[in-house]
Amino acid sequence: MRPRHPLTLDILISIFVAEFNRYSNEGRRRRLYGLDAPTKTKEDPEKALMSPSLHTGPECLAVVVGYREDPELFRRALDSYKRADGCRFILVGVDGDEKADMEMVRVFEEAYPEDSAIVHIDEPFGEIAMRTYKKITEACYETPERCQEMTIAHCCQLAREILAEHDLGLGELGGVSRLCLYQPHMHKKAIMFTSFIFSIVISDILGIEYMWSSDSDTIVFTDSVRRTVETIAGDPTAGGGSSGLVVHNEDDSMTTKLGSAVYWCELYMTRSTSASSGTSDCQSGPSTAFRVSALPSILYPWYTQTVFGRRMVSQSLRPLSSL
C-alpha cells in the first residue's frame, strides 16, 4: 500500500527545524524570566520574591495602521488591544484625511474616549525624509549611512515638536496613552513610516524598548503581543520577531480554508530553516514586534527600497528584515 502522505527527507528536516524553532523561542522566554536558573536559586525564598511575575514582562508600544477599514472590523481590532498584556501605548495611523477617511478616526474616538488624542499630519514624513536626505547629501560629504541617520534624526525632531505643540502629557498621570495620526493619502508604507517615526519618539519619552506593528483588521489575543515581545527580549541579539495569524473567517468557504492552509504551511515549513538559527528573511506584517533601537538605521532604506528600479510601496513589513 502506498502512503497517502509520504514523508520525504526535506519534509522531515522541515518538521525538525520547525519544532526546534519553537523550542528555541520558548527558551528565550524562559531566560527572560530566569526560569532556566539552577534549582537552588529558584527555590531560594528571598530570590523568589525578587523575581518578576510570569504575568508581567517588557512593555511595548503598539502601532496599528490602515486605510478606509471596515468600521466594525476596525472596532474589534481596537477593542482587542484593551485586553492585550504589556501594551502600554497605542498609536493608530490612518492613511488619508478626506471625508471618507474620517470614519476610521470616528471609530478610534468611540473605542478610546478617554486618555486619547487625534493629530493631523500635514505632510507624510516619508516625503519629508526623502527631501531632507537629498538636501543633506548635496550640502555635505558624509557616507550614505550617516546621511540616513541625520535624516531620521531630523524627522524625529519634527515629530517631537508636533507632540509638544499638542501638549499630550506623555508619561504623566492622566496623559494620553492612545494617539491617532491621520495624514494625506499616499500608500501603506507612507503611513507606516510616519507612525514608526512617532513611535521612536514616544518610546524614547516613555522609556519603552519594544514596538508591536499590526494592521487595522488584525485582532490580537490577550497574550499575543506579550509573548512575541518576550521572545525578542529574551535574546539581546534579536532585533525583531513575528507571530502567527489565525484566519477568523477560515470556515466561510473553500477558498478561505485553502488560504489558511497555505499560510500556515508557509509559516511553519518554508521559514522554519532560517528561523531555527535565529534569523528571518520575512517578518509577518500584521503581527510583528521590533526592538525600537533597531528601527532608525533601517527605516530610510526600507522606505526608499527599489526592485528593478521601481519603488515598492504596497507591501508592509516584509522588506524590513532583509536590510
What is the structure about, briefly put?
This protein has 323 residues and is of the alpha/beta class. The chain is built from 12 helices and 9 strands. The strands form 2 sheets. Strands 3-4-2-1-5-7-6 form a 7-stranded mixed beta sheet, sandwiched between helices.
Give the key terms.
single chain; 323 residues; alpha/beta; seven-stranded mixed sheet; two-stranded antiparallel ribbon; 12 helices; glycosyltransferase
Structural description of this entry:
Helices cover 47% and strands 14% of the residues. It has helices spanning 9-32, 39-43, 45-50, 71-82, 102-111, 125-139, 144-165, 188-206, 224-233, 254-270, 272-275, 296-303; strands at 60-66, 87-95, 116-120, 178-183, 210-215, 240-242, 288-291, 306-307, 310-311. Strands 3-4-2-1-5-7-6 form a seven-stranded mixed β-sheet, with helices on both faces. The chain starts with 8 loop residues before the first helix and ends in a 12-residue tail after the last strand. Mean pLDDT is 83; it is low at 45-54. One of its GO terms (cellular component) is plasma membrane. Its main location: membrane. It is found in: Cell membrane.
